[in-house]
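Thread amino acids onto this structure.
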C-alpha cells in the first residue's frame, strides 16, 4: 500500500480525504470472489452445510450467503441436536453469541441467531431459527454451550423468547416485574410512562413516572439544588 492509499496519511482538513475509498490490494481467491471486498474465507462453510443436510435432512430449511458469510436456517425444534452435532462431530466448540431479531412480519416474526466457531478449522457458521409470535418457545442450548446462558437471558429480556429448560430464566437488564420487552419493534423509543418508576428528582418528591417528560410536552420537575449558603452567617 502506497502512502497515498493509507488512510492514516489523510489530511483531516480536506473533506475529500475524509471519504473512505477501499480497493483490494490482492486478487481474491476463487472462494473469496464475491461482490463484497470485505468477504472472509472463514465464514464460507459449504462442506459443513453439506454434512448438516446429510445428517438432518429437511430440518435444514435454507442457506443464505452474503459477503461470503453462510447463514443456515434450521428447524427450531432441532436446534439442540444441530448444535450438539456441530460441536461434537464438526469441531465447532466455541460459542460466540446469540441474539434476537424482530422482523415485524405477519408470519415468523422473530429470529434467533447463533454464531459458532471452530478454532481448529478457523471457520465460523451462523445458524438461525424462525419464531412465531404466537409461540415464543425456543429450546435452550445451554446444555451444549454453557456460554449461551447469559445470551439467552438477554434475548428473553429484550424480546420475550421462552428458552425451554434454561437453568436460570431471569431477566438480564430490566426488573422482573417489567411488563414489556424493549427491543420489540412496537415498543416506543421513549418508553412507556409509568412502566419503570425512577427515583424522585427532589428529596421530598414523588417517583419519576416518565423519564422523558419534556419530550412529551410536560414540564419536568427541576432537579434538586442545594440552597445558597450565607457565608456571613457562619
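Threaded sequence (234 positions):
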Amino acid at each position: 500500500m502506497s502512502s497515498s492509499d493509507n488512510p492514516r496519511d489523510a489530511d483531516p482538513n480536506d473533506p475529500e480525504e475524509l471519504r473512505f475509498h477501499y480497493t483490494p490490494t490482492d486478487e481474491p481467491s476463487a472462494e473469496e470472489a464475491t461482490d463484497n471486498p470485505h468477504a472472509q474465507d472463514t465464514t464460507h462453510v459449504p462442506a459443513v452445510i453439506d454434512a448438516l443436510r446429510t445428517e438432518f435432512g429437511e430440518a435444514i430449511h435454507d442457506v443464505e450467503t452474503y459477503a461470503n458469510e453462510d447463514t443456515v436456517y434450521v428447524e427450531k425444534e432441532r436446534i439442540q441436536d444441530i448444535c450438539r452435532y456441530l460441536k461434537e462431530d464438526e469441531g465447532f466448540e466455541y460459542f460466540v453469541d446469540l441474539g434476537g431479531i424482530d422482523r415485524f412480519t405477519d408470519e415468523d416474526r422473530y429470529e434467533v441467531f447463533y454464531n459458532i466457531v471452530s478454532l481448529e478449522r478457523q471457520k465460523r457458521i451462523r445458524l438461525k431459527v424462525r419464531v412465531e409470535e404466537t409461540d415464543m418457545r425456543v429450546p435452550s442450548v445451554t446444555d451444549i454451550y454453557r456460554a449461551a446462558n447469559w445470551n439467552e437471558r438477554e434475548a428473553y429480556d429484550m424480546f420475550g423468547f421462552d428458552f425451554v429448560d434454561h437453568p436460570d430464566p431471569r431477566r438480564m437488564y430490566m426488573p422482573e416485574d417489567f411488563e414489556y420487552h424493549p427491543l420489540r419493534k412496537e415498543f416506543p423509543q421513549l418508553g412507556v410512562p409509568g412502566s419503570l418508576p425512577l427515583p424522585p428528582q427532589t428529596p421530598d418528591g414523588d417517583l419519576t413516572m416518565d423519564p422523558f417528560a419534556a419530550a412529551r410536552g410536560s414540564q419536568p420537575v427541576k432537579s434538586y439544588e442545594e440552597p445558597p449558603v450565607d457565608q456571613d452567617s457562619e
